[in-house]
Amino acid sequence: MALLEILNFPDPRLRRPARPVEGVDDALHRTVEDMFETMYEARGIGLAATQVNILKQIAVIDVSEERNEPRCLINPRIVEREGEESRQEGCLSVPGVFANVLRAEKIRVEALDREGQAMTLDADGLLAICIQHEIDHLEGKLFIDYLSPLKRQRIEKKLLKVQKAERIDSASRPGHAG
Ligand code: GNR
Ligand code: NI
Fold this sequence. Notes:
The structure is a single chain. The chain is 30% helix and 26% strand. By secondary structure, it is an alpha+beta fold. Strands 1-2-3-4-5 form a five-stranded antiparallel β-sheet. It is globular, with a radius of gyration of 17 Å. Residues 44-48, 51, 89-93, 129-130, 133-134, 137 line the site of ligand GNR.
C-alpha cells in the first residue's frame, strides 16, 4: 500500500484523457488499493486516476458517512441521464475552491468492477454527482471548467497566489537545497 501524490490545478497533466483499462491484473489491483488509501487519507469522496498521474480509466468512490462503502469503477460510461441538479462541488486537485455545478440528477453507468466484471449502476444524489465529477477527470475536465470565465479567472489567480506562497514557505524550511 502506498499514498499517491495528488496533482493540483493548473498542472497540465490533469488535462490528459485517460485510456481504457484492458485487463484487470495484480498491478491494477495494487493501483486501486493505493487510490483508495490516498482518497481516504485526503478525506475525499472520490478520486480519479488522472489526479494521481495514472492515465487509466479508474475511479474510486465512497460517499458514505461511515467511509465503509468503497466503490471502484473501471472504464465507466454514462448510458442514461435524467433530470438536472445543482450542487456545491469541491475537488482534491483544486483545494479550497467550492462552487455550484449543474449536472444530471440521475444516471445509469456501465463499468467494470475491480475484478473486471461488467456491472450496471443506477445512481442519484451525491453518488451521481461524484461519478460525473470523476468521469470528467478521466476526460481531462475539472469542475471549474463549468464556471463563468470571470469566476474561473478569480479562482486561478487565487490558487496561483497560494501555490507561490507555499513554494516560498517550503524553500525556507531546513533541509531544502534551495
Ligand atoms: O471530495 C470530493 N468531494 C466532492 C464534493 C462534491 C462533488 C464532488 C466531489 S469529488 C471530491 C474529491 C475529488 O476531487 N474527486 O475527484
Ligand atoms: Ni476532483
